[in-house]
Specification:
Layout lengths: L15 H4 L30 E8 L2 E8 L18 H20 L6 E11 L12 E15 L2 E13 L2 E13 L1 H14 L33 E3 L2 E5 L19 H20 L7 E9 L10 E6 L3 E3 L2 E12 L2 E12 L8
Antiparallel strand pairs: 1-2, 2-4, 3-6, 3-9, 4-5, 5-6, 7-8, 8-10, 9-13, 10-12, 11-12, 12-13
Amino acid sequence: MPLSPGPTADPHPSTATTSIRPLATVRALSFRTTVDRDRVHRAALGETFVTDSVSVTDDLFLCGAQLPRSHAYYGDVHDDPKHFDVLLVLEAVRQAVMLGAHEYYGLAADVRFILTHNRIEIRSLPSLVIGTRPAHLTLNIRVTDKRVRDGVVCALSFYTCLTLDGTEVARVTMGMAYKSPDSYRRLRTSGRLAAGLPGSADAEPVVPVSPCLVGRNDAANVVLGEPRWAGETLTAPVRVDQSHPSMFDHPQDHVPGMVMNEAFRQIAVLAADAAHALHPSRGRLTLLDVTYTRFGELDLATTATARPRAAEAHGDALFVPVELALRQRGEDIATAVAELTYPEAAGGAA
């Protein structure tokens, strides 16, 4: 269960502008090499984006991250001009808070991390346009809640301001719970037994939809099957490909948060296209607010649902809010709210 509901608004609006200014006494972050991949729970060097970290105060630390200009998963988009993927930015934060938990809060190397909620809001979409060199992000990360049991940190909540070349580009909130290997094993075993899933198996394979329907070029990066409408709700099966080198960088015993976030993005752009005739390749995910309510089991079918709301015009852009859920056996495993931005689309709105 989540530590707290995923926020629907910026939880620290009064501190956001001041918290992005590092203290003058803090050493400069390095972007010369990535950190030890084990500290951010990655198997592949090419999937490791955090480059450095430095402690500022007891509840504040900084991280650097380099975003690659090209990537088989994060770079597989139709948009023109190309932007750094919002889910790549979110992954950089996920890795940074993992590193911070190990470095500054004493979490052992074998502790299991459980993602409870994440929210990302893009503050400057033009700043994320890919240029002639990789992007060097500065992540200003504040711990907003710490829970301790028997003298050991068991949960942390983080608030992150991300800047690129001095411009704030995104704000992220994220929560993690922590379990020892034995405690995690007991949690997973009891949960699966209670659900009548004592063994291990794979769910039935899902045939992916055409990549262009979800703003992709490569079918390997498609996580949805054939969609259908039921009233005002769009539903599609989720394709969980355990051989995917990014979404399954290493073996998992559950559906990873990365797969869930991608499913939310793809069902959102599908729904916006179906409801408002907005082309999937033009939509930019500028808000994603997710609460993870239970483990997604690899041997159960997963369904994504989306309820698109009315498109809103602001200047030349259209904004489409979408209510989202992922379900197994008819029960939510994660819920979300997303907002898609369609630059220069307002002139064609009905």
